[in-house]
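Practice problem: AGZA family xanthine/uracil permease-like MFS transporter
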Amino acid sequence: MQTSLPTSSTRTEILAGISSFLATMYIIVVNPSILSQAGLPFSGVLTATVLLSFGCSVLMGLYARNPLVVAPGMGLNAFFTFTAVKGMGIRPEVALGAVFWAGILFLILSVFNVRSAIVKIIPKPLRYAISAGIGLFITLIGFENARFIVGNPATLVSIASLKDPVILTFIFGLLITCILVTRNFPGAIIIGIALTTLAALPIGRWWGDASAVNFGAKTLVSFQGILATPDFSLIGKLDFVNSLQWALWPVIFAFVFTDLFDSLSTFVGVAEAANLYDEDGNPRNLNRSLTVDAVATAVAGLLGTSPGTSYVESAVGVAQGGRTGLTAIVAGALFLPFLFLSPLLSVVPAIATAPALVLVGSFMMKPVTRINWDQLDDALPAFLALVLIPFSYSITQGIIWGFLTWTVVKLALGKSHEVPIGLLIVDAFCILALFSGH
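Answer key — structure tokens:
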């Protein structure tokens, strides 16, 4: 059921779209760097990434009317490279074919409303927990991007040295963005990103060394030229036939399952954070959003990249006030120039967008207050879903263990009426996914 769009000013939506783009633009370079390890040309994947992000984000805005950026999914690209191609020895062209057929399967599931039915059977306490867990996950990504939280063999993780100029610049950006946000300053997140970028300019030039925290360069903000020629060599290079071999179905299933729950959790999480619900209490325009997500996966295989999915970083734009499809359209449109201008991405360093990602986590914690923490058979499964998303660095793992724990606890207490048949079916797929090693 489609609903009318919430009231929002054009200016707010444009600022939100810019914010979402700034939070997700890293994928333009990161995705090619991962998929190139699978033997695909860096420039070809970059072109495919830009085209997919532009086309499907605009489609999300125009058709689904939701403020969600669509781009090749992190995690999915790693699975493509390190599990499918390197681990199983699948040719990259065949793996792209598997991506395409996974997208077709998505579309079939969407036509029969299977995916939206899954959202409707997710218990509300788990919805609230997933939203908050994604918020914590985004916060962790922000801290990691800034190298503020680093690995430690003794304690697993720890805070980096506060003497490092990069860390000090990040802290400056975080505090100044906090001040702007709490004062409800228009465009607070964008201004915070701009000020942090300016503050990073001296690093490696007049003081400090950016490579001290493994950024791989002497300077954080660098100018590497303006123009780069698009590479369309991967378009249509997928292997349609060989990707349908029986041995490839576990790979297709892994793409389906992971993208399914990544997208569903994004819709639920953003809906909770921004109250984007229809009159039935489901995420707004859910069926259309899921259809766009399915199209993004199929198109990804055709263009030459890993599956496309809705991005959790879209919450940055929602935090800026984005509520309509215009946010996604603006964000998507900003990808297109980077078919030619990809070298300019080096101007905005990771520590400039990291404060925005960190603060988004706080914006997404509000649903936690709606969980009845005194009702332990609700609270414990919700808690596991919440903490395992950031702790396992996987939205899918958090959802799987939240679902399974909910089912086991409810059945043990004789509350089978709170475990619908649909949830039991999903549980079966969760167990299959666990034992398939993904």
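Discussion: The longest strand covers residues 149-152. Students who identified this feature from the tokens alone can consider the problem solved.
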